[in-house]
């Protein structure tokens, strides 16, 4: 009987020791195993190896989405990489791991009615870069980059009196022009060259001059509105010749 009691006590003590040891072990803080750091993501505007990145914006800072940006290898024929800008005007293009330098470029496609015009853009920094180092190449679209045409004026008959030094034409877009603008603007006539670099579009046009000391509103007609009026509808037409898109107006005194 005494042996049974002693054995029971011994087992109880052993059990308590085991429980105490397990509790102490689980309460001991453990050092976490070291983890490999995630590769650092390059910050916007920072060059990364074998990558060309950047933004395409207007001169006013507005981002342009859907612009096709490309990098051409300067040594290997037909080796290029292409990407498109996102809603923030940003792009990122991986490059082939080939030694040598790359040159950047972009195409901005603009729509006017059913027509699409392709504008080639050059980067703000057009220096070719080492592909192994990567580069940031930003682009800026300026209003002067937009497709434009020339406005030519003609007299309706030989008796028309024009003072070309004071002649000016006012254009009001009949719907958004190629730049998406509906703002009215006025341009002076330039003898010998007409009015150049007018953004493509459809316009309501008026003309005025100073004749004999008084300001005079002229009458106009165009290929799109042949009846003379103080304000005429006109748009650019491209005959496929070296002159490019032109808008022709015929003028006469009231």
From TrEMBL:
<dbReference type="GO" id="GO:0004180">
    <property type="term" value="F:carboxypeptidase activity"/>
</dbReference>
<feature type="signal peptide">
    <location>
        <begin position="1"/>
        <end position="25"/>
    </location>
</feature>
<keyword id="KW-0378">Hydrolase</keyword>
<dbReference type="InterPro" id="IPR008969">
    <property type="entry name" value="CarboxyPept-like_regulatory"/>
</dbReference>
<feature type="compositionally biased region" description="Pro residues">
    <location>
        <begin position="31"/>
        <end position="42"/>
    </location>
</feature>
<keyword id="KW-0121">Carboxypeptidase</keyword>
<protein>
    <submittedName>
        <fullName>Carboxypeptidase regulatory-like domain-containing protein</fullName>
    </submittedName>
</protein>
<keyword id="KW-0645">Protease</keyword>
<feature type="region of interest" description="Disordered">
    <location>
        <begin position="24"/>
        <end position="49"/>
    </location>
</feature>
<keyword id="KW-0732">Signal</keyword>
């Amino acid at each position: 009987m005494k042996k049974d009691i002693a054995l029971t006590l011994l087992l109880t003590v052993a059990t308590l020791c085991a429980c105490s040891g397990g509790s102490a072990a689980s309460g001991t803080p453990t050092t976490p195993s070291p983890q490999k750091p995630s590769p650092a993501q390059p910050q916007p505007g920072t060059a990364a190896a074998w990558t060309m990145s950047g933004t395409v914006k207007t001169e006013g800072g507005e981002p342009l989405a859907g612009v096709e940006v490309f990098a051409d290898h300067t040594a290997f024929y037909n080796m290029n990489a292409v990407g498109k800008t996102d809603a923030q005007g940003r792009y990122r293009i991986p490059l082939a791991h080939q030694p040598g330098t790359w040159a950047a470029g972009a195409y901005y496609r603009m729509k006017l009615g059913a027509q699409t015009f392709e504008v080639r853009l050059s980067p703000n920094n057009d220096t070719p870069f080492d592909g192994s180092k990567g580069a940031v190449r930003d682009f800026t679209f300026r209003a002067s980059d937009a497709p434009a045409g020339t406005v030519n004026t003609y007299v309706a008959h030989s008796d028309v009196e024009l003072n070309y030094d004071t002649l000016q034409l006012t254009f009001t877009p009949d719907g958004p022009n190629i730049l998406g603008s509906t703002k009215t603007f006025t341009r002076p006539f330039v003898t010998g060259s007409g009015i150049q670099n007018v953004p493509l579009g459809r316009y309501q046009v008026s003309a005025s001059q100073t004749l004999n000391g008084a300001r005079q509103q002229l009458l106009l007609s165009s290929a799109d509105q042949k009846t003379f009026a103080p304000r005429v509808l006109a748009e650019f037409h491209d005959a496929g010749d070296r002159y490019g898109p032109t808008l022709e107006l015929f003028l006469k005194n009231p």
